[in-house]
C-alpha cells in the first residue's frame, strides 16, 4: 500500500528529475529545482516521524531519495536549537527549503589569496522559504538560531548515497570584517 508520505515524496522527486534532466547550467538548475521544491514545503505528510527526529549532539541528515543515476539527492536535515554546520562549500548545486522552524545562513567570501573569510550576508530563512546556489561562491554556515527544532529539505546535485555528504571543503580560516 502506498502511503501519503511516499506518494508526495515520489511527486517531489519526479518534479525535480524533470528539471534536472533539462541539462541547464548548475545555477539555472538550482533555480528550476527551487520552483519544484517550494510547493512541497507546506505538505504536512511529506516526512515520516522518524525523518523528523533530531539528535542532541549534532544536526541529523535523513536521506530521502538518491536518484539512481546519481544526478541528485534529497535529504531532510533536522536541527535542534544552537546546532550548526562548519563553514563549508559544496561539490554541486544545492537548493534548501525550510520545512519547519527557522534557519540562519551566514555567507562568506574568500579574500586575499584565500587567506581569510569575510562575512558578506546573513539570511534568516523562515518556514516555506527556498534558496539555491551553485559553486563557486557558495561558502556558508547554517545554524538553528531559534528556540525550536528546525527541519529543512535539501536537494543536492550529487549522489549523497555514494559521497555521504555534499560538502566539498570545510574552511578553518580567520573571519575578518
Automatic annotation (TrEMBL):
| Keywords annotated in UniProt | Dioxygenase, Iron, Metal-binding, Oxidoreductase, Thioether bond
GO molecular function list: ferrous iron binding; oxidoreductase activity, acting on single donors with incorporation of molecular oxygen, incorporation of two atoms of oxygen
Q: Which domain of life is it from?
A: Bacteria
Q: Does the keyword ATP-binding apply?
A: no
Q: Name one Pfam family in it.
A: CDO_I
Where is the 3'-(S-cysteinyl)-tyrosine (Cys-Tyr) crosslink found in the sequence? 94-156
Q: Where does Fe cation bind?
A: 88, 90, 140
Family label = Belongs to the cysteine dioxygenase family.
Question: Could you identify this protein by its name?
Answer: Putative metal-dependent enzyme (Double-stranded beta helix superfamily)
Amino acid at each position: 500500500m502506498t502511503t501519503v508520505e511516499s506518494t508526495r515524496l515520489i511527486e517531489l522527486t519526479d518534479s525535480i528529475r524533470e528539471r534536472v534532466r533539462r541539462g541547464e547550467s548548475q545555477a539555472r538548475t538550482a533555480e528550476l529545482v527551487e520552483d519544484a521544491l517550494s510547493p512541497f514545503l507546506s505538505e504536512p505528510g511529506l516526512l515520516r516521524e522518524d525523518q523528523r527526529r533530531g539528535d542532541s549532539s549534532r544536526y541529523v541528515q535523513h536521506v530521502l531519495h538518491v536518484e539512481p543515476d546519481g544526478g541528485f539527492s534529497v535529504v531532510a536535515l533536522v536541527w535542534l536549537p544552537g546546532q550548526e554546520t562548519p563553514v563549508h562549500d559544496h561539490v554541486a548545486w544545492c537548493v534548501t527549503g525550510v520545512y519547519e522552524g527557522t534557519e540562519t545562513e551566514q555567507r562568506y567570501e574568500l579574500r586575499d589569496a584565500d587567506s581569510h573569510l569575510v562575512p558578506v550576508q546573513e539570511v534568516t530563512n523562515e518556514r516555506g522559504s527556498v534558496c539555491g546556489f551553485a559553486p563557486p561562491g557558495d561558502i556558508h554556515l547554517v545554524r538553528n538560531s531559534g528556540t525550536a527544532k528546525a527541519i529543512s529539505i535539501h536537494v543536492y546535485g550529487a549522489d549523497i548515497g555514494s559521497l555521504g555528504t555534499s560538502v566539498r571543503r570545510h574552511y578553518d580560516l580567520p573571519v575578518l570584517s
